[in-house]
Amino acid sequence: MRRLEVERDKRVPGGRAWLVVAGQPAPARLIRISRDVAGAPFLGPDGWSSRRVDLPVGGAVVQDGTLRIPLGPDIVDRIAEDELVRIALPELGIEEEIVWPAIPAAPRSSGHRIVEPTAEARVPPPIDTRPATPPPSVAEPSSAPVPDRSPGTPDDPTPGGSVSGAADQNAVRAADGDRADVERADRRRSDADVPRPPPHRRRRALAAAALLLALGALAIFALVALVPLEAERARVVFTGPAGGPFTPQVHEAGLRRAASVRWLEPHVLREAPLLDTPTADPALDLALAEGPALGWTLAVRPGAEAVLLDTGTHDRSILLVERRLGIEFPVTIPVRFVVEAGPAQIVTDPADGIVFRGPVGGPFVAAEDRVRLSNPAQRSADWEVANAPGWLVVDGAGGRLEPRARAEFVLATAPAAATLQAGTHSGTLAIAEAGGRHTHLVPVRLEITPPRVGLEPDVIAFSGEEGGPFTPLAGEFLVSTDAARVRWRIVEGSGAWVAAAPADGETADAAPARIRVTPSDAAQALPPGTYERRLAVLLDGGATMARTVRLVVRPRPDWALACDGSAGFRFDGDRPDGRPFMDDSAFLDAAALEEGIGACGRVAGASPEDARRTEVQLGRLLAERAVRKARRGDRAGAASDMRRATDLWRSAAQRGSAYAMNLLGAHAGGTFNRAAGYAFVTPDRAQATEWWRRAAERGNVVGQSNYAVELLRGEVVHRDVHRALTLLRAASARGYTRATFVLGEALYYDYPSEVPEDVVTGLRLLQQVACAEPAAMEVIDREIARGRLTQRNRPRC
Predict the structure, then answer these.
(1) Which of 67, 455, 475, 487 is the 20 to 30 A CA-CA neighbour of 540?
(2) Long-range contacts of range 324-328, CB-CB < 8 Å, 24 or more positions apart?
(3) Is the pTM of this model over 0.90?
(4) Contact 671, 649 (CB under 8 A)
């Protein structure tokens, strides 16, 4: 698959391009460009020369895993359109031949320097699929009409647009001023004819009016300010039994002025007067808040000590003080408590009772093991506990409970509880007040559960190939219980192909007992299949618990067949006909890759007749795992796997494996370096070509194709076009599509020049393998884009 492509940089008129490296996340700093021209095959800083040069490049960027390297005029302007050049990135181990696209040369202008693009301009623009549009033309000068400033417009500094117009307007203004002076003089003469009172009489009249207004305001203020507040809904009565609760829970009283002056209050007082309660009664709870229209709202509730009031009627009073003008105005609100006679009331907690739980023989535990009593009444109460069941012990079974006091007593199970059978045992505690007038009942319950015994796990499974061994080597059943001890014994399951030990036992101090289960020697004689045995354990009391022991016996696999299916190669001459193959091991997932390595490893060490083929296939799988480890950053593991792979290939090559020779050539040429992004070996094309030559001479189609490419290039070995075409035709005839693609491309482009041009045959070969070889489809698409081919020439896959 081709990885290099040259694109024109459309942001500049010419002389610039992008080198696009697909699937390459790392940048590169050096580039080497060469061509097949005698005397000057390498491109250097000063043009084409005979010296091999690595040119520095900068400004490379990586977007979405694709590397883009900017190429300037020093490279672009020196390569002709449709010229076949070889581009190499030494740091990345990438080298490919491409046909140079049509890119205009950089514009030249005497006396001016072509400005280099900035760092921001080097970032490749987004791909635009729209047709290119010509650059916008230079804007024409505006042809909008100039505003006509005619005389008299706001922009003209003089009205009318002339000096004579201004003089006429000044004359009009002077005439208007003379007429106004004459009218004012006439008004003064008419006012002098009206008779007026003397000034001292007017002053006396005004003073008298002001005095009357002040006296009226003072009278109104005194009327409002000296009238005290009146209480609305002032009768407060609370009724309830001794100790409460009382009704109502809250009483609200309103404080307002008398109705006769209430309408004047908002006009005289701008804010409510200061009001407080200088005395407090603990039997009352007061809350004073501002009400509507400068009034007050007083909320009265029974206080904390109201529950201590004796039976009868209790009068209280609320004293409020209003402060106005430095004077205190008291307001009194009477309160009455009507306390009805009632018995003392003891409250128990928890009210729903107490529960003890535990197995047979104990121990027994309760989430709550005590009863709490409280006396919210105003008098003390004597109490005692009676009717306790025989399995219960009461610690503190009586006493006196003072008013507002609390007490508690603790419950525990008696020794007799350990002798009870499994089940629920109920009882009721009676808490009686002195005199027997009131009795409070507290339910108690003892829940005894039978001992819980577990046998885990449900299934123990063994598996292995016919004849063993089986994994795991052993399994364990655990006998567990929450009781002090439980006896057990195996009554079924041990024997045949299962061995279980010990045969009986007893749990100690609630610790689990262990029953070890293993496949017996008889299991090794079982044919393939699935076998199950029922292991039954008998417990004290007659209960039986059963679990399953399973054995899966698998047939021995054909390791050679599994190895061929994971790493067999279609064109490996050592692969027998009808055997499976996997042309590209990169398609294997991690689990399949490891299974293939295991299968090939067994065949390579156990089957002499298949040893050479399976050594090559095992090396192929190890090389694939090395590439994946290198991509994950495990370089040590990758290097170890690659060394094992090359050792296997050399061993097979010494015994005549042509496919192993081809893989050694790929390794020497850096193929695995490029796949992993890691240098397993320093590339050596001469050594790689020699391995491919040896593979080609032994009839390996991949070696024939690779060696033919080197013969066409003529860089490492002497160019021999006739032999190269012969090898390509032989490999293509055997169905190797890569050789068909190389042959078709050489004939289509008559490259190198010694190849006889045969466009029709070349295009037919490219079309023949375009669906299997993406590189062939790329050549056809490129020719369609250049207008040399049409869409009808593109095959449908």
Answers:
(1) 475
(2) 324/225, 324/273, 324/274, 325/225
(3) no
(4) no
